[in-house]
């Protein structure tokens, strides 16, 4: 994988338009993955505008997470109507999907649109709520698995494109997703394409080289509609890196949870009743504290790291603690196989045999 970024001789807007035009001309079926956020919103604007000029049709995929701001839903509906002449099918998916809940150790995952629960809001009448609509759908499947299987299903076993609005500047993982030299490209001069696992669909990343400033500059200069939630977040002092629109309970997204209480108190009350840890997340996630230990964690001075690890394990629900005991045991076994002495054994006397065991009392590897 290359770790270098090579500047192009054209600006990012021209490059993105060129990539989208190539996609519309080359692949017969094109779908835009849309979340209602600034990146995918810009990508939908660019793609739909070019499709109009080229007399082409596109599809749009939107995953409805149930617990979403009313202004986000209204924004999505407005773009669907605005580009109705070029959108052949708008897949508004409101099916039970499992995703991360970073607010609770008791419910580390949650399922949107879970049957038998009081939903935060009702899906639109034309949303896809029938599990039989997609042949690949399995109840409660993860979001990641759904979008992978959707890409193959959408292709109809023919060449197709899924336009994804990720940017390499957002995180190392997203940079690696594009820069990884082991991934198959449509062509050597199309580094912004990768082949989906099933081999029919191409993932297209037309704005992979845009920066956050480029996104906002484009919206400012064109006057195209953007999700008004960003204005509310800005006015509330939410840092740009924490302005997330998609699933609300992830490590990054939880930073803006408290806004629900201010902007939509009734919806916030429903979210607190619906998802474990939502109330505490609304109180603490937006603060500059170590409540959630995200990226940076401090231990008490009177404990060493192993003692602190034991304390944390003891404070967890047994199922969660067992999950991490097994992970730590794998880590220690890796050190053992490599002939390396784990750091905790160099300065601490507590035996890992006594610490990291299964719930039934048997050790994972020892």
Task: Explain how this protein is built.
This is Immunoglobulin-binding regulator A. One of its GO terms (biological process) is cellular response to oxygen levels. InterPro entries: DUF3440, PAPS_reduct_dom, Rossmann-like_a/b/a_fold. One of its GO terms (molecular function) is catalytic activity. Residues 30-234 form the Phosphoadenosine phosphosulphate reductase domain. There is one protein chain. The protein is built from 14 helices and eight strands. With 366 residues, it is an alpha/beta fold. The chain has three domains: 12-212, 3-Layer(aba) Sandwich (Rossmann fold); 226-284, no CATH class; 305-355, no CATH class. The strands form two sheets. It has a six-stranded mixed beta sheet. A two-stranded antiparallel ribbon has the order 4-5. Helix 1 crosses helix 2 (38-54) and helix 11 runs antiparallel to helix 12 (318-337). The radius of gyration is 23 Å and the shape is globular. The two termini are 37 Å apart. Residues 346-366 have low confidence and may be disordered.
The CATH topology name of the largest domain reads: Rossmann fold
Strand runs, count: 8
Q: What would CATH call the architecture of the largest domain?
A: 3-Layer(aba) Sandwich
Q: What is the C-level CATH assignment of the largest domain?
A: Alpha Beta
| Percent of residues in beta strands | 5-15%
Q: Tell me about the largest β-sheet.
A: 6 strands, mixed
Structural class: alpha/beta
Average pLDDT works out at 81
Number of structural units classed as domains: 3
Terminus-to-terminus distance: 37 Å
GO molecular function, one term: catalytic activity
Protein name: Immunoglobulin-binding regulator A
Pfam families: DUF3440, PAPS_reduct
Organism: Salmonella enteritidis (strain 2009K0958)
């Amino acid at each position: 994988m290359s770790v270098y970024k090579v500047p192009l001789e054209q600006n990012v807007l021209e490059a993105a338009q060129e990539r989208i035009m190539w996609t519309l001309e080359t692949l017969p079926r094109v779908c835009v993955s849309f979340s209602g956020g600034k990146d995918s919103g810009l990508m939908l604007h660019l793609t739909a505008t070019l499709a109009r000029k080229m007399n082409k049709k596109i599809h749009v995929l939107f995953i409805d997470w149930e617990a979403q701001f009313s202004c986000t839903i209204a924004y999505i509906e407005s773009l669907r109507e605005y580009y109705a002449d070029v959108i052949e099918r708008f897949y508004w998916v409101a099916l039970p999907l499992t995703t991360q809940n970073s607010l609770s150790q008791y419910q580390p995952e949650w399922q949107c649109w879970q049957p038998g629960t009081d939903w935060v809001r009702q899906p639109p009448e034309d949303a896809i709520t029938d599990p039989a609509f997609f042949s690949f759908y399995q109840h409660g499947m993860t979001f990641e698995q759904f979008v992978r299987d959707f890409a193959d299903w959408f292709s109809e076993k023919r060449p197709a494109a899924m336009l994804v609005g990720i940017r390499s500047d957002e995180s190392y993982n997203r940079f690696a997703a594009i820069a990884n030299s082991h991934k198959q490209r449509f062509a050597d001069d199309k580094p912004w394409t990768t082949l989906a696992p099933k081999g029919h669909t191409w993932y297209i990343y037309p704005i992979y080289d845009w920066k956050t400033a480029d996104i906002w500059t484009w919206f400012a200069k064109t006057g195209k509609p953007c999700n008004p939630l960003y204005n509310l977040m800005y006015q509330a002092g939410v840092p740009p890196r924490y302005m997330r629109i998609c699933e609300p309970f992830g490590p990054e997204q939880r930073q803006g949870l408290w806004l629900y209480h201010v902007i939509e108190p009734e919806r916030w009350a429903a979210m607190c009743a619906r998802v474990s840890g939502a109330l505490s997340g609304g109180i603490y996630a937006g603060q500059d504290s170590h409540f959630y230990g995200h990226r940076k964690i401090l231990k008490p001075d009177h404990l060493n790291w192993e003692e602190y690890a034991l304390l944390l394990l003891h404070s967890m629900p047994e199922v969660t603690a067992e999950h991490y005991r097994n992970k730590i045991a794998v880590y220690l076994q890796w050190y053992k196989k490599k002939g390396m002495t784990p750091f905790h054994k160099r300065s601490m006397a507590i035996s890992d045999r006594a610490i990291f065991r299964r719930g039934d009392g048997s050790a994972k590897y020892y």
